[in-house]
Amino acid sequence: GAGVSQTPSNKVTEKGKYVELRCDPISGHTALYWYRQSLGQGPEFLIYFQGTGAADDSGLPNDRFFAVRPEGSVSTLKIQRTERGDSAVYLCASRKGRIGINEQFFGPGTRLTVL
Amino acid sequence: SQQGEEDPQALSIQEGENATMNCSYKTSINNLQWYRQNSGRGLVHLILIRSNEREKHSGRLRVTLDTSKKSSSLLITASRAADTASYFCATDPALGAGSYQLTFGKGTKLSVIP
């Protein structure tokens, strides 16, 4: 398919564990975003990549969260020492081009549950 | 942080009726977008309206934008049961504002009763 894909679709882990969430953007989209959506809320920005570099990580809640995009395509969001408050749906989006004139295309999300 | 505020938070209508949702925001924007979300998962892009546009149509959707009031509305005409979902407005910041991440509101939960 030509859309944004995310794996896994669901992840259940225990408090204190490490998790990795993967995002495959639309081919050719240089901009990639991670958002987090808690129950009953709208998505909130976490981090933005333009190419391989994290151009804006101001939305990451603390240093337990980290994301990479080593080859400018697939991105991995990494969460260390997970806490119950990290439970949410993590959404990835990609957009064509650098400036904000085009829509963002969202993946189906990964639902993370921390027990 | 959430910029947009949608109202109402929840809306229940009969099939065939029109549904109107409103969104207010706080800062200057390049464009405003509306998304639909089913069952708390992937967001589906519905329509984008640029800051220099006042109204836009797409099928049964009509979006208005009033930048002087920093508000937008989404009208869904002749609603169907399949329109049942959560609807979010998202603002795309003004050009030159950095990463152009979208800022979402909390959404309106629409229920269309058959």
Report on the architecture of this protein:
The complex is a heterodimer of chains A (115) and B (114). Chain A has 115 residues and is mainly β. Chain A is built from no helices and eleven strands. Chain A starts with a strand and ends with a strand. The model of chain A has no long low-confidence stretch (mean pLDDT 92). Chain B has 114 residues and is an all-beta fold. Chain B is 0% helix and 56% strand. Chain B has no helices and eleven strands. In chain B, the strands form two sheets. In chain B, strands 2, 4, 5, 9, 10 and 11 form a six-stranded mixed beta sheet that branches. In chain B, strand 4 and strand 5 form a beta hairpin. Chain B starts with a strand and ends with a strand. The mean pLDDT of chain B is 90. The chains are: A mainly beta (115), B mainly beta (114). Chain A binds chain B through residues 31, 33, 35, 37, 39-45, 48, 50, 55-56, 59, 89, 91, 93, 95, 99-101, 103-109, 111, and chain B through 1-2, 4, 30-31, 33, 35, 40-45, 48, 88, 90, 92-93, 95, 97-107.
Question: What is Rg of chain A?
Answer: 13 Å
Measured as a percent range, the helix fraction of chain A is under 10%
Number of strands of chain A: 11
Helix content of chain B: under 10%
Approximately what portion of the residues of chain B adopt beta-strand conformation?
Answer: over 45%
Question: Total helix count of chain B?
Answer: 0
Q: Largest sheet of chain A at a glance?
A: 7 strands, mixed
